[in-house]
């Protein structure tokens, strides 16, 4: 026979389930509505069009590049932050994380102003020629995802007991060797989480990308920009096809992230 606490537990569980079920139903209705105003045959044709394939390829390439760059540059900085070794301390950390609280379009506008004021013809101008180019997509995505990756990496490094590093140092390891051979292997799941989060966010980045790289068909046309262009041009079937691809890619990426969290 159920005890007196069982009904309370059931009621509490029901209260917790109501908002979850409501949100699931709302999200399902939003996704279903995408196909309600389009032709399934037209969407199927648009899925194999050159524009869709171009947008998928460019999105994956730029998101992988931005996430990889964020991870590579974030590891040493996040480690310094976690161990109190960052020059400038909290002031420097605040400066690095400012883009996290800025609207992406503001980040893109700041980058656009910076790169358009580079002295023309200079070596810096040649190296940083990113305005209205695919390289600009990587730069814009990087500045948007880097603070997010930095926070995840810092938390991962902070969770590693410094005593393991101290033991390695007594065995003759340098700080860099300790980071590579002790800290990184112990924080590997955090590193993977940071990469996946940066990749997912870079895939959906629009504001900074369109401001710095522009919305140029078959040049800087990532999935979000392609959706914007197709809706602006009234091609609803192409827009739905692109949204379908975005949902599938995001779903796979989020599922991988959740599986990683479950293992942890």
Please characterize this protein's 3D structure.
There is one protein chain. This protein is mainly α and 264 residues long. It folds into two domains: 36 residues; 224 residues, MetI-like fold. Helix 10 packs antiparallel against helix 13. The radius of gyration is 23 Å and the shape is globular. The two termini are 37 Å apart. One of its GO terms (biological process) is transmembrane transport. This is ABC transmembrane type-1 domain-containing protein.
CATH architecture of the largest domain: Orthogonal Bundle
CATH topology of the largest domain: MetI-like fold
Number of self-contained structural domains = 2
Helix and strand succession? HHHHHHHHHHHHH
Give the beta-strand count: 0
Q: How is the quaternary structure best described?
A: single chain
**Main sheet overview:** none
Number of helices: 13
What characteristics describe this protein?
264 residues, 2 domains, mainly alpha, 13 helices, MetI-like fold, single chain, transmembrane
